[in-house]
Each structure stands twice: as structure tokens, then as C-alpha cells.
Amino acid sequence: MSKKKLDTVSILNELTGKSRFFESPIQDNEMNITKKKFESPPPDDNHATTTPCNHDTVIPRYHDTVAIEVVRRALKVFGKEAATHRFTLEEKQAIAEIIFAFRQKNIRTSENEITRIAINYLMLDYKKNEENSILHQALFALNS
């Protein structure tokens, strides 16, 4: 049995990029490409962004840890008063979806608990913000 000899010249050609299948990437100077430097347009004073001096930074309400704590404490008290709420089909489905989503995360909740959270949050927001509260704005829009 004879040993097969490797053609080292062709292997070196393949490895050094002289193969048709493994061509080296074309250099920029070979393609005569001229790169243009990106220049930003000169700033236009008429369209410059300025921060209004009469606007204050607004902190989103849902980041209010004090409100969350107040609502949490209110929910710890057992509600003994019965109440009937009339929801639309879409509202009932939305609440059911919320309950389902929390159950997927192993957090038990109920329609009653979600309703109490909403009521307590609306009352707290109204006490803090009065005419700027969600409750006031919604009722004003509903009655105008």
C-alpha cells in the first residue's frame, strides 16, 4: 500500500489567498473608492432645541412609592361593606386578563382587590392633586 502525497504547493496557495474560492477581500484602494467625511450641517439658530423655562420636571405618578404604601395599607383592612359595580364586557375581560397574568406569576388576586386598588389610588390622587387629579379630569371631561 502506497502513501498518498499531499500537494503542499496547492495547499499553500489555498491558505495564502490565491484560490478562486477563498479570495482575499478587495481593498479600498483597489476599487478606487474615495471616502467622504461626514459633515453635519451648521446649526440653525431658528430651530435649536431649547428647554422651556416655565416647565418643571414631572415625576410619573406610578413611581410614587408613598402612594403604593398607602394603597397597600388600605387593602390590608378587610372590606366589610358590600358594593355592586356595573362593568362593561370589555372592562370585565380586561380585569380577567390582569388576574390571569398575575396568576401566571404566582400572585393571587381578585376582581375585588383590583377594584379596591383602583378606588384607593383614585382617592389618594384626588386628595393630593384635586383639579389635576385623574378623577377630576375624567369627571370634568365626562360632564362637559
Topology:
Elements: H1 8-15, H2 65-76, H3 89-104, H4 111-129, H5 134-142
Helix pairs in contact: 2-4
Walk me through what this model shows:
With 144 residues, this protein is mostly helical. The chain contains five helices and no strands. α2 crosses α4 (111-129). It is elongated. The mean pLDDT is 78.
Please tag this protein with its features.
144 residues, mainly alpha, 5 helices, 44% helix, elongated
H/E series: HHHHH
Mean pLDDT figure = 78
Which structural class do the helices and strands define? mainly alpha
Please indicate the percent range of residues in DSSP E strands (runs of 2 or more). Answer: under 5%
Describe the global form: elongated
Distance between the termini: 102 Å
Structure summarized in a few sentences:
This protein has 144 residues and is an all-alpha fold. It has helices at 8-15, 65-76, 89-104, 111-129, 134-142.
